[in-house]
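Local shape tokens

___
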Amino acid sequence: MLAVDVTDIDGVQQWLKKLTPVSLPLWGNMTAQQMVEHMINEVQYTNGVKTPIDIGLPPDFKEQKKLWVYTDEPIPRNVVLGQLPDKYTYPNLETAKWQLLVEIENFHQHHNVNPGIEILHGGFGMMTYNEWIKWHNKHFTHHFKQFGLIE
């Protein structure tokens, strides 16, 4: 069972309280603030702030990959999908953590205002609100484990 539930904003906030500027990852190269800013960026693709881009994967491939979202299989460690940014977007970790909570709230609001909307995931294709919840839960769990916030 996944440990993080993005529908429980208070729960997410409690996990984030454990994260400090000196928190070190158990694997990977991200700093605590880079991880939070990465999560902000990802959620913004699902709350209407940013527009996802179709990277041209075949539809049947995406559908097969999307089935994995429904499993309890964790995201593998040390997956590198690009370079880490040289600069932070937010002035400090506390501001970034607060912004992440805002973006999660905006995600839920965006889907409440636009019921039935599907939003593109570059690797999985079009996803519903419930599918995005499953993905965000899996993704948050991965990174919260990375920083030892959960076991």
